[in-house]
Design goal:
The chain is an alpha/beta fold. It has helices at 121-129, 151-155, 158-173, 193-202, 208-217, 234-243, 245-253, 279-283, 302-312, 334-339, 341-344, 351-370; strands spanning 4-5, 13-15, 18-20, 42-55, 62-72, 80-84, 87-94, 104-110, 133-138, 149-150, 181-191, 265-269, 289-294, 317-321, 331-332. The chain has a single domain (4-370), classed as Rossmann fold (3-Layer(aba) Sandwich). It has 12 helices and 15 strands. The longest helix is centred in the last third of the chain and has 20 residues, at 351-370.
Length: 375
């Protein structure tokens, strides 16, 4: 039995500069603001890779890895706006030449439920300006880029961590990219379910069965309900879990941690699911951890997350910003404030200011933990 449904990303378009998530049929290609004032251009490449160790959710072939890489581009590279629908992702020069031949520290990037890594280009561009390379993957079945949401992609999140591990392995083996990467200095950053993803890479863990037991006792908890992006019900999840062999194979994988020892530091923005994590697994995390939460977040239990981290991972540095959950997405056009208020109207500090604060925290954190090669 397969369960998939067109979600908010079903009205998908090809945007000059790569495939981008278009969230809804109302959304037309939008304009971006004026070019940023910076002396070092940002390059961007898109790659269509596969993970042959796992199947796609339909069980018909290898699992796709839809990859975006941001990197320091050569002087004179022409940056163009990258936008889709009401979202203004940023500015970059697609397929530009590299700025130099040095090896740069690498940050892997994981998006939130139903989203895309394009939504966090604001963070990637800031890190590139500080001398990092950033590589993200649009998680199969849980990204608007595919235009078709797949139920397992929403409820089997450990596969996302395996996506980033597979991405790192392939980056390190790629003849064009590997010479530019210092794979001894690798971090990971993620938003929402992407925040869970990077914590899982660092050693945080819960199994499918453990989550079911916890949520049977607290079904109303934010981390036990389906996200608003999910186009299906918990009854659908139960039905698919009983008959789908691909789903069942993933459940079996959840019974062991997906830690990747190559990851040296993690940044989690509004991370989902922290109270579900096995206590011993969180307490056992040894890499540096930086967490950003929002005071106005209605999708993630920010106070509960902060309490869990204070109790089990006291070394983690936690900051609470004046932000709603979706303020960590890309900036919106004025039209977005009207037609897509759920994702565009945060209600806290202006989104550009939140991005500035979060990017500054990320650059400082990864520079301290991985070291940076200033362009």
């Amino acid at each position: 039995m397969r369960y998939s449904q067109r979600g908010l990303g079903s009205a998908r378009r090809q945007v000059r500069g790569g495939t981008a998530a278009v969230l809804g049929a109302l959304l037309l290609l939008g304009c971006a603001d004026r070019a940023p004032e910076r002396t070092s251009p940002v390059g961007r490449r898109h790659l269509a890779w596969m993970d042959s160790t796992r199947t796609d959710w339909d069980g018909r072939g290898p699992r796709p890895l839809d990859v975006t890489v941001w990197y320091p581009a050569a002087q004179g590279s022409v940056e163009l706006p990258w936008a889709a629908g009401v979202f203004r992702f940023g500015w970059s020069a697609q397929n530009a030449a590299w700025a130099d031949t040095r090896r740069h520290p690498l940050v892997l990037l994981s998006h939130g439920t139903g989203g895309s890594v394009a939504q966090h280009s604001w963070l990637a561009e800031a890190l590139v300006q500080a001398g990092f390379v950033v590589a993200g993957v649009n998680h199969h079945g849980n990204t608007a880029v595919e235009g078709l949401y797949r139920l397992p992609g929403f409820v089997l999140p450990w596969e996302r961590a395996l996506d980033l591990s597979a991405l790192l392995t392939q980056l390190a083996a790629d003849s064009a990219l590997a010479p530019h990467l210092d794979t001894a200095r690798v971090g990971a950053a993620g938003f929402s379910l992407g925040g869970y993803t990077v914590v899982a890479l660092a050693g945080g863990w819960f199994s499918y069965e453990a989550r079911a037991r916890t949520c049977a006792e607290r079904p109303e908890a934010p981390y036990c309900t389906l996200p608003p992006e999910a186009p299906f019900t918990l009854a659908d999840v139960d039905s698919v879990s009983r008959v789908d062999p691909v789903f069942q194979a993933s459940v079996a994988r959840s019974r062991r941690p997906v830690t990747d020892a190559r990851i040296r530091a993690i940044l989690a923005m509004a991370p989902a699911g922290m109270p579900l994590m096995d206590s011993a697994s969180l307490a056992g995390i040894t890499v540096p951890v930086r967490v950003l939460l929002g005071t106005r977040d209605r999708q993630v239990d920010a106070p509960g997350t902060e309490a869990v981290l204070a109790r089990l991972l006291p070394r983690a540095r936690v900051s609470v910003l004046d932000a709603a959950h979706y303020d960590f997405l890309g900036q919106c056009s004025p039209k977005g404030q009207v037609v897509l208020r759920a994702l565009c109207a945060g209600g806290g500090a202006p989104r550009a200011e939140l991005h500035r604060q979060a990017a500054e925290a990320a650059v400082t954190f990864f520079s301290q933990t991985l070291g940076a090669d200033t362009p």
